[in-house]
Amino acid sequence: MKTISIVVPMFNEESNVEPFFAVLQQSLAAQAGQYDFEYLCINDGSRDATLDRLLALKRGGLAIKIINFSRNFGKEAALTAGLDFAQGDAVIPIDADLQHPPDKIPEMLRLWEQGHAVVQARRTDRRHETLRKRGFSHAFYRLASAIFEMPMERDVGDFRLMDRKVVDAIRNMREKSRFMKGIFVWPGFEAVVIEYDVAPRHQGQSSFGFWKLCRFAVDGITSFSILPLRLSTYLGLLVSLLAIGYGLYILCKTVLLGVDVPGYASLMIVVLFLAGVQLVGIGVLGEYVGKIYQEVKNRPIYVVRDVF
Predict the structure, then answer these.
(1) Predicted TM-score of the model (pTM)
(2) Which of the four pLDDT bands, split at 50, 70 and 90, describes residue 272?
(3) Is 307 part of a structural domain of the chain?
(4) Cα–Cα distance between 53 and 13 in angstroms, integer?
(5) Mean of pLDDT values over 165-171
(6) 283 and 219 in one domain?
(7) 20 to 30 Å CA-CA from 172: which of 87, 202, 227, 275?
(8) Structural domain contains residue 220
(9) Is there a single domain that holds both residue 259 and residue 203?
(10) Computed from CA positions of residues 260, 265, 270, 275, in that sequence, does the dihedral angle turn out positive or negative?
(11) Which residues form the domain of 252?
(12) Distance between CA 143 and CA 246 in Å, rounded?
């Protein structure tokens, strides 16, 4: 019998633990005789009673494996740990807040049995999210699809099914700066897409605020594209050409027409503009140097305190 690993990263999800597993088990009841289900819960340094709720479910007879981090390492590290510990023939990451509908898992399994190595889930109805978040997400996916070296489906997140061969390929990717949405698609296995509506969170609030999403997007872009570096080069060349042209204009105006060189105001505008361009270029370069710094330290992606 094939084994399916369900990977559930959790951070301060105490109010969602019992409802999530109730819905999950109900959704998978019809497949219970066809597959062995392995439930992997990664407690990502939760500060509430998430771990206690998980242990209570385990003591109550629910066959779950709990990977307890020593501190909060972030969702990307929690997903990585889930893939590292998963033993199944297929692996399905899913959020515990019930925004990823567990009742889509049987459809994923059906498509997997038909030979698809990856089954991605695309969000179609996001009316429960703020307009700013929806607009930012749409812009990011459009940009990522344009500049990433591999195609990235719009509105596809972490909720997906991956065959064992895909998981094994991903486990070989050990970079410290982890953008899992890009890492999931980088191996290049063919994928099929299903759609689902995003439900509101069952309980609690998302830990991803707007500025955290912005940092996440910058991290994703700099992890999978060097286009920002090239744009900095192109911008520097453009500014240099404009400066040369402006300098020739001032020279001709002064020598041929006898007009005095403009004074303080124009000089300050040029100086501040060039300084701004330089700072932007240094900032972009700093993002990539920072990633090199993280890699050469070679620290572990996560630290496990306990496994229950």
Answers:
(1) 0.83
(2) confident
(3) no
(4) 9
(5) 96
(6) no
(7) 227
(8) yes
(9) no
(10) positive
(11) 227-297
(12) 33
Residues 220 and 243 in one domain: no
**Beta bridge partners of residue 125, listed in sequence order:** 197
> Coil, strand, or helix at residue 45?
coil
pLDDT in tens, 33-63: 899 999 999 999 999 999 999 999 999 989 9
DSSP secondary structure code for residue 200 in this structure: P
Q: Residues near 274 by Cβ (< 8 Å), separated by ≥ 6?
A: 239, 243
Give the tens place of pLDDT for each residue, 222-260: 888 888 888 888 888 888 788 788 778 777 877 777 666
- Is residue 69 within 8 Å of 306, Cβ to Cβ? no
| Same domain for 246 and 171 | no
Shared domain for 113 and 140, answered yes or no, is yes
Q: Is the pLDDT of residue 18 over 80?
A: yes
Q: What is the pLDDT of residue 210?
A: 66
pLDDT of residue 224: 84
Q: How many of the other CB atoms lie within 10 Å of CB of 20?
A: 23
Domain-ending residue, one of 225, 256, 274: 225
**Whether residues 66 and 153 fall in one domain:** yes
pLDDT confidence of residue 247: 74
User: What is the CATH classification number for the domain harbouring 144?
Assistant: 3.90.550.10
> Does 302 fall in a domain?
no
User: What total number of domains does the chain contain?
Assistant: 2
Q: Are residues 156 and 73 in the same domain?
A: yes
Are 115 and 33 contained in the same domain?
Answer: yes
| Rounded Cα–Cα distance for residues 153 and 155 (Å) | 6
Last residue of a domain, one of 189, 204, 225: 225
- Tell how many helices (H) and how many strands (E) occur in the chain: 10, 8
Average pLDDT, the chain: 86
